[in-house]
Amino acid sequence: MKPPGKIKRKFRNTPGHSHYYTTSTDCRKPFLKDERVCQALADRINKAALKHNFVILAYVFMPDHIHLLIHPLDEIYSMEVIAKAIKQGVSNRAKSRGWIPSDLWEVGGGYDRNIFTPKARKNAITYIHQNAVVKNLVESSVDYFWSSANWYFTEEEGAVKCRHYASLE
Q1: Which of 22, 35, 96, 121 is the most buried (most CB within 10 A)?
Q2: Has this prediction a pTM greater than 0.70?
Q3: What is the pLDDT of residues 13-36, one digit of tens each?
Q4: Burial class of 107 by CB neighbour count within 10 A (0 to 12, 13 to 18, 19+)
């Protein structure tokens, strides 16, 4: 039996699938309101994408959670390794610099759902981009800096380097 708080998520590593991945901050504290923490996270995601050969199709950083739609390019990959690579180091960096008082991430691996149809990809991207609007952070998704929404409309690169989902079809 696992001790309380030690949740082990099961990831399904299926070639050709995209992954809708979300994870929350510790106790849903709004640590991602701090631009320095967001930039450290964006840098980490960009490095992880290069190291583990995946592309980011969409993202949004909310004050207390993140949503990513990623697509591994290798036939053999591990979403568990990718998730760790995304989160790894950001918490320690933010704590050591005094940006946050405790661990950044909730205990556990986050939530991962396989996305394997073009329609499901488009729906996930729409959901991700509308998150800041639904939470009343902005009136229009393109106005939220910590999101890929503006990139989809202008192709002006944001904090996280993205690739258009149509390139996968």
Answers
A1: 121
A2: yes
A3: 777 899 999 999 999 999 999 999
A4: exposed
